Fold:
Amino acid sequence: MTLASVGCATITRGTTQALTIDSTPIGATVSLSNGERCETPCTLTLKRKYPLAVELCKSGFRPVLTQVHSQIAGSGAAGMAGNVLVGGLIGVGVDAASGATKDLRPNPLAVTLVEETPGCAAPSFPAVPEGGQTPEEYAQSKSKSKAKKKKR
Structure:
């Protein structure tokens, strides 16, 4: 059976998650430790299994550095339990390795910026947290997923 080689959570939840980042006021530059960048409000599709450091920067406001954690989710744990019940130990390993049992938290990430003079001058990329994905690894995973989509 083909499903025995793929984890339940990997099938039902997927390995990526949309992370929404917002700020008050809007228009802050968001820099992630994986090298991704956007302007608030924004939504990025990211791997569930990697924690991220996030910096928000806007001229005239104090920069904010925070973390988005990768944590076991309730529905992810249910998918993992489904693997055990069906006898899919391979599926358990796939789910654990792919990060499908995890969620990025907090999500959405909502930050209230505090006015400060001169405030954030230039956005920078924060350091990669322990267990996080480096910008190089992130770029490689993006190019691999684009290549898979072209083959389909």
Notes: Confidence is low (pLDDT under 50) at residues 1-10. The two ends are 23 Å apart (CA to CA).
